[in-house]
Amino acid sequence: MPRTAIIQSDQSYTFADYFKLNFAPQDILAYFGVTLQRRSLQLPQYTGSLDRLTDLKTRIEESLPRLSLTSEMARREFLIAPVLTDLLHYTQATLNVEYPVAVSNQLKGTLDYLLQNHQIFVVIEAKNEDLERGFVQLAIELIALDQWIESDQPLLQGAISTGNIWQFGQFDRQSRAITQDLDLYRVPADLEDLLRILIKALNH
Question: Which of 81, 119, 98 is closest to 199 using CA atoms?
């Protein structure tokens, strides 16, 4: 089956549309000349002190038993947003919510969260708690960011989150390869590792 049938060049696609496509992720990415690999990234971690970690963990642990994770708004407000606001405290990054990007008819939409300081990092919430399809959307957003931003950052990084599970991805801009991390980080169990990876990614 020709790959051109996967994405119609005369049609318009938003980032969210790629979440709905039923094709294999590597076939979708091949349309943009990008390869997909899956391996454990073993991401570097920040080694300094985390003065807000205990408070953040307590707040999340208190809210989780009473929180309905079927609501996307609940996952964003009570699980993803608290992690990101603490991240700002440690990194001095700026956070853009619902950040619009328009590269082409096939690469446009809004990024749930875009963090910026020395590095750029994108976080998206996995709709319907579907990490696999969500990762395809994350990959497309990293491909779009590659063309949208003026930065010599060799690796563009991002994460997909259901709120209580996070997964990382990287786009190597030179080799045009997306790597999907095989490791998953659970909140609150792996909250410290998650925060340390996020801080390091932004303060590289």
Answer: 119
